[in-house]
Each structure stands twice: as structure tokens, then as C-alpha cells.
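Page 42, continued from yesterday. The earlier attempt failed because a stray header line got pasted into the input along with the sequence. Redoing it now with the clean sequence only.
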Amino acid sequence: MSNDKPRTPKDPGQPPDHRGELGRRLPGPEDAHERNRNSEDRPGEAPEGLDETPTEAQSSSVDDPAIIDSDYAFRQIMVRGRADEYDKAQQAQARLSAGGDAPPSFSKKAAQELQDGQRDAHQSLIDEIPHALERQAIQLEESEGHFDREPDKARIREISVRIYIENDETSPEGVASALEEVLAEHEFTISQDLDTLHGSWFRTLIARTKRSLTRREAQEQMDELVDKLQRAAELRLIHSKQAEVDSAQGSTVAALISSLEGTSDASIQVGSILLAKISGTIYVRNLTQRELVYIEHHPTLLAEPSQILAALEKAPEISTRSLEPPSHQAQMATD
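This time it went through. C-alpha cells are written below.
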């Protein structure tokens, strides 16, 4: 004896009741219309009222291919933050709905393939990021004269050179000429003159070594140049016979410092060395890798000598040497 209840005939004027094999109501065309209207009101959002947890009917299996409500598939995709997949699923639903009375539906297999493909693409991009950063770091190290933990293996040929002169009474060409002599003394020659901005004078150059240097050798060259610049800057503030002797021994560096006398503000970057003149006071520092990266991303800082030291304080491992004028008593003692 069958336990099926007799079905009550429906009023022909009523809209069809879309019910699936499991006895639940499936979305009909009128539901799709309402859903599309809601989506237009809130573009990029999933329709409201959708549970992230499948119902008992949704969890049940049916004949292959298994069919689940497209709304549930959309919700599962949105839960995983896949807005682009949601858009693709909407397009799939629209194509199914265009067939007429067929209820808009989405197969589990199609939903899974859609998610897997996007996840693989995203993971591939994520996996590539460390390699891209490593390549960028290598390029930066080679171009900016940074020295790694194995200085005898890697070699460099070029460093960046930037000069900014506040255009007072200083001859920018004289400063550039003095700097070229300093570089030549340390086995560097100017290989490229990239650009020069006038008004205030800002020049970007590329210096190339006469021979290929290991990182250790380049580090020694930079350290030697830093010491000479610091010493020459000190000698400009101490008027004594010893200063004259030392100045003669380091004439090229002294000439570079002297060339900046006519301006109150200037900045010069040679690879990992920064020389800044701020309100008449000269600062010399050996830039760390973090500072080099910061300047590389903000090269216009060199056009603001009064701001560059404060800006570099954002990078760690800062060690700035400020060369203050000696006191009156110190000058009397050396005379």
C-alpha cells in the first residue's frame, strides 16, 4: 500500500511551484529576477539571506552530476573571498537561466574546479613574490654598492651618483668637476650623465669602476672615501698648520669640500656615501642598505638637504656624524 498522499490540483493561474526530487523548492525564474535586482542595488555583493552552512537537502546526494542551489555555491565561493569567482558563477547561472524553465543551478564539480583554478593561480603568484624580491635586492645591491655576507664572490662595476646644489653663489659645474676628481682617485669614472635639473641644480650620474671590484674591495674604497670626507670637513673648521698639511695630502677631497663654500645647503650621494651640507654644517654618513632602499624610492629627498637626515631616521641602524664648529677656546688653543 502506497503511503503517498494524493496531490491537490493546483490553480492554473498560480505560478509553478519549482520542487526538486528531494521535495524542496528550487529557485525559479522569478527568484532569479529578484536576485538580479538585489545584485544591481549592491554590485559586487552576494544576495542576502544565504546560509554558509548547507541545509540537509543541500548536503544530500542526488543523481550524478550532483546539483546544488547556485546561491549556495555562490555563498561558498564568497566565504573564501573569491569575488572574481562569484562573478564567473553569476555568468554561469545566467547562461543556465537563459534556457527557459530550467531552474538556475550550479554543479558541485564546476564550483570546485572554479575554486581550484583560482586558488592555484593565486598561489603561483604568492610563490613568485619572494623570488621577485630577491631579484630586486640583487639588482639594488649591484647598482648601489651594497656589500653582502660573501664579499669575495660578487663583483660590482657601477654606483649611483647624485648631486644637489641650492643655487646661491656656488658653481655647480665646479662641484661636479671636483667630485669627478675624487672618484677618479678611487678608480671610478663617470660613465653616464642621466639628467640635470636647473633652477636649483640636481644632477644624476652613473660612476663605473676602471676594473671589476669585489664587494670587499668596493667596501674598502667607500670606507676610505668616507674617512677622507669627514677629515676634510673637519679641516674646514680648524685653522691650523696641521690642517694645511692634511689638506695638501687630501687635495681632491678638500677641493670638493671647498667647492661647496658658496652654498648653505647641498647634498651629494656617491654609492653608499651621503654628504649633506645643512645651514653651513657638513654631515657625512655611510648609508646602510635600508637607507639606500629608502633613498632609491625617494630620490627627491636629496633636493631637500634639511629634511633628508630626519627622513632617514625612519630606517634603523642610523649612525650620523655631525661636524660642529669648534668652540672659541679650541680655536685659540690650536693657533
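Notes: The first strand starts at residue 67 and ends at 69.
Reminder to self: strip header lines before submitting.
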